[in-house]
Amino acid sequence: MRTHTTTIMGALALTLALAPLACTDEGGGSDELADSTGSEDTGMGDDEVDEGTTGAESESGSGSSDSSEGEESTEEESTSESESEESTEEESTEEETETGETWPPCEPDNSCEDATDLGSMAGDKQRDSLIHFGTGEEWVEFRATEELSGFGFNSGAPMKVRIELNGPPGTDYDLHANRSGDPDGDACGNGGWTSDEEGNADILSLEWGEGDAFANGEDDTRNLVVHVFSDDEVCDPDLEWILVITGGVL
Which pLDDT score is estimated for 73? Predict the structure, then answer.
């Protein structure tokens, strides 16, 4: 009986001694597992949320950047189109100018009655020249005077006038000239001489009065008019021609 009691008491004491250890191991293991699992789950969740948010913001920023770049590109294209339109307008204006649509018509600013006066020169001596520059069509007038007169051999000489027109390349101006019938007469009227050669150069050579070295006893001084004209409908006002009138030569 003593032996049985001792055995039971010994077993009970051993059970009581081992019980706290079993509770500590199980509790500690559960807490560690819970802490480990909770910490990892929470960390991963936050990271994923942060990464998702950052990615969304990045995508949003990239979208905004792309949109801004697209707007800038559109503005640049609009600017280029505007510059292209301005360039096209300038080219169009230049083309219109080159075709002569903006040039004045080829009509003289004056008439034979109010022709530009170039002065006078000797017609029977080769010493004088009259030079005149102009644009478009124009009437000019001058007086060719007789310097040699008298009686006897070599006392006279024919009156000669050379009228030469030189225009700019690509133009086709022409000449018409007329002469008065007496020293104080009017050169405007019917008749005259015309040079309408193709190209930018024309020449008229006029001769009258004494036909040899003997004087005819008359005054062969004459008034003359010259008309520079063109068959074109318009004339470039920037293209200048030159008119050279020389006495005593043909």
Answer: 54
pLDDT tens per residue, range 46-78? 444 344 444 444 444 444 445 455 555 555 555
CA distances from 217 to 160, 165, 213, 222 (A): 17, 33, 12, 15
Length of the chain: 250
Give the pair of three-digit tokens for residue 107. Answer: 């009509």
Name the phi and psi angles at 154, rounded to 5.
60, 25
Beta carbons of 220 and 210 less than 8 angstroms apart: yes
Encode 210-240: b = buried (16+ Cβ within 10 Å), e = exposed. beeeebeeeebbbbbbbbbbbebebbbeebe
Measured CA to CA in angstroms, residue 40 lies from 29, 37, 52, 132 at distances of 16, 5, 18, 106
Question: Which residues 6+ apart lie within 8 Å of 162 measured at CB?
Answer: 203, 204, 205, 206, 245, 246, 249, 250
DSSP element (H, E) containing 28: helix 2-98
**Strand partners for 122:** 145
- What is the mean predicted confidence (pLDDT) over 198-212? 90
| pTM for this predicted structure | 0.58
- Could you give phi then psi for residue 81, rounded to 5 degrees? -65, -40
Sign of the four-CA dihedral 63, 69, 71, 74: negative
Q: Indicate the burial class of 172 (C-beta count within 10 angstroms; 0-12, 13-18, 19 or more).
A: middle
